[in-house]
């Protein structure tokens, strides 16, 4: 009985695996499945007439392609797309937060704002992209694509509007009433109570918006008439049957998008410690 009790106590006090360890195991599992599939199931799928590899290269071939292409190749292409994504991120999120605040100050505007947000979410970017390309026109040499900036802004607008509205409306009613009793109107309620209450929801929306802006910029580059960027580089790799390079560009795109998400998540962790049950900094 004593041994059984000790065994149960030991199992009860056993610490669960770290989430980071689970993440590492998941990444290794994905790489293993990718490698095995590339060497077996997809080994002969998409083989070019010249005898080049299939449509799914193994991870070693992709890494080798990235090293062979060099840092400069990826840096100059990522820099262009990143600039377009950042501009779209700022414009789209800025407008979304501005309109969300307007709804709290002027409630009848909510119907119009939410409908516009839903339209931007539902309309296919591949359908509106050519129209935006015609309206904005081609960029000047060396300038970012206006089409890419617009599509990046459009992809982040809906998420931020809805997230901000939900956060702003979740403010404590007692705190709002207190501001009202002391003579504060909707503006004071917005700046003194609602914004603080909405910060976790807003930052969560901004996290999701970071990869979305990068995706919008890449799609816009297909139509925006630029010579540099992830989009043109992917098209050139596809047309040249450079499969490992195409996968390398996709991998780098995922890493950059994930980095954007992680940066905003880190900001949210320090800006809103109460949302995770942590104590704020003490004076």
Total number of helical segments? 10
Report the average pLDDT across residues. Answer: 82
CATH topology label: MetI-like fold
CATH H-level superfamily title: MetI-like
**H and E string:** HHHHHHHHHH
**What about the largest sheet?**
none
Search tags:
283 residues; mainly alpha; MetI-like fold; 76% helix; globular
Task: Set down the secondary structure blueprint.
Blueprint: H1 2-12, H2 19-39, H3 59-105, H4 110-122, H5 125-136, H6 146-169, H7 173-181, H8 186-223, H9 230-239, H10 243-271
Helix pairs in contact: 3-6, 3-8, 3-10, 4-6, 5-6, 5-8, 6-8, 7-8, 8-9, 8-10, 9-10
Structure description:
The protein has 283 residues and is mostly helical. The chain has one domain (53-272): MetI-like fold (Orthogonal Bundle). It is built from ten helices and no strands. It has helices spanning 2-12, 19-39, 59-105, 110-122, 125-136, 146-169, 173-181, 186-223, 230-239, 243-271. The model has no long low-confidence stretch (mean pLDDT 82).
